[in-house]
Amino acid sequence: MIRELIPYRDFERDEVFACISGLIKSAGQIDESSLAESASWYCDCAAKMAAAAERAGIAGNLWQTWLAMLVAENENPFSLAHERRGPLCGTMREFAMRDFETLFDCLHYDLRSIEEELRLGAAGLLDDFVPMTAGPVSFGRTAGAVIGELAAAMAAADSPAGLYEAAVSFYREHGVGKFGLYSGFRWDAHAREIVPAIPLEDISLSDLIGYEEQKKAVVDNTTAFLDGRPANNVLLYGEGGTGKSSTIKALLNEYAPRGLRMIEVYKHQINDLETILEEIKLRNYKFILFMDDLSFEQFEVEYKFLKAFIEGGIEKRPDNVLIYATSNRRHLMKETWGDRLDKDDDMHESETMQEKMSLVDRFGLLIRYFSPEQKEYLHIVRSLAGEYGVEISDEELELGAIRWELKHGGFSGRSARQYVEFLAGQK
Fold this sequence. Notes:
Layout (H helix, E strand, L loop, with lengths): L14 H11 L6 H25 L5 H12 L3 H7 L7 H17 L4 H6 L25 H14 L3 H15 L3 H4 L2 E5 L4 E4 L15 H15 L7 E5 L5 H12 L4 E5 L8 H8 L5 E6 L10 H10 L9 E7 L9 H5 L7 H9 L7 E5 L4 H15 L5 H14 L5 H13 L2
Parallel strand pairs: 1-4, 3-6, 3-7, 4-5, 5-6
Antiparallel strand pairs: 1-2
Helix pairs in contact: 1-2, 2-3, 3-7, 4-8, 5-8, 7-8, 10-11, 16-17, 16-18, 17-18
């Protein structure tokens, strides 16, 4: 019996679910006047389900996969409560159990009878889908694989109670919605929403050669954050190409399984930070707001908004959010010789300078990345050459590396990688 949903009411707004469930309800009652239109709707749904399964690289029954996707993505009071591992009893639980009785009937309904009624001439149209590709890969976590596992667990459920348990187990392990399926995000100012960043850069902490002390400081702060212990906002500063941004990206790949999520926010989006915070502050994840290459010119006032955001107002700053930023400037603000000439005109010089430099004080952990010396630079080159399988004598490799850095901005990890990639491309 297909009944109206309550916690999962949003399913009805999904075109595919609304169409298929509607056809199930009207099975055996489709007349000749609506036969062609109903068949067209059904095929439209099949096309949408097949396209989604192809993008995600999920094999199996398309209808069951689609229901699993809806269960995984639907954020409602019931699913969010299980993500937070909060109160698990009450009336909402009874409403959810009622919904899962309906979903169980939908999940196990033999759609071949509808295909026959619609005279499609292809019984089992939605069964045993095989994707052409493995789907887009998100380093360390694949959303398609996660949904595929849920689909298998739901299909194996032999009762509504079993289906209920499959969904609850998924919420407790992965969470719900986009934060349960993905780990890296960016703020889309036009759409006014947080959107997944796919795919993530394939980089790990072990790939970053050198800077062991700096990496340890960042890792220790991040693990304290994930463990619920006090942790600081972090500023990584220093010369370009030294691995500041790569260190932060590698953190996400390393700790996403422990509930770390990262949202990249650009400088011109600082005014949207409060909007972002409203969406994430009650979720059961630890969020790093990542601001890459952060710096401000004299005429830019966004730093005041960022300073106020970090400092907090009347509302307590949530414990599940930190800011990690990178910059080539120690104080984040551009300083010129003209600033010194202005001193004679400033009646409160010390206060003005303190205002300009005070943003950096909001970052409790300041980590400097130095450009490597020649010896360390050549060590990075040799390590990367081995990783890329570059076959060349050490003497020729090092001589080329020194020539390369003279034309490409000096000794840095970025120059080393660009040189080795150039060699690898010549094979």
